[in-house]
Amino acid sequence: MFGDYPNRVSGGTVNDPANRTSHEVDVAVYGLDDDNRQPLLAIGEAKWGDVMGMGHLDRLRRVRSLLTAQGRPGAGTARLACFSGAGFTDELRAAASADTGIVLIDLATLYRVG
Description:
Layout: E1 8-16, E2 21-30, E3 40-47, H1 54-69, E4 79-84, H2 90-98, E5 102-105, H3 107-110
Parallel strand pairs: 3-4, 4-5
Antiparallel strand pairs: 1-2, 2-3
């Protein structure tokens, strides 16, 4: 799902000096390479009751560009993950269908058994 096996998952905050703000990252997925480094595999946003749309994706793209500019390992190719309990707009679904770097995770995917 994230292009490699996850080693660690956490959350955090990314500073945006140009806009004098910061962005909270709900989900940051890290791998583990042969040199024991932890490259970023994915960043994501989680919403329980909100239908997620292109605004959420655009924010994740901004966060990824900030992390890339900071030189974070894996940031440039990190997948963008949207976790939603309420679903996704048709526009976001179409974007994810066209780009394997966008991952949509709904409740059925999250709680898939077997």
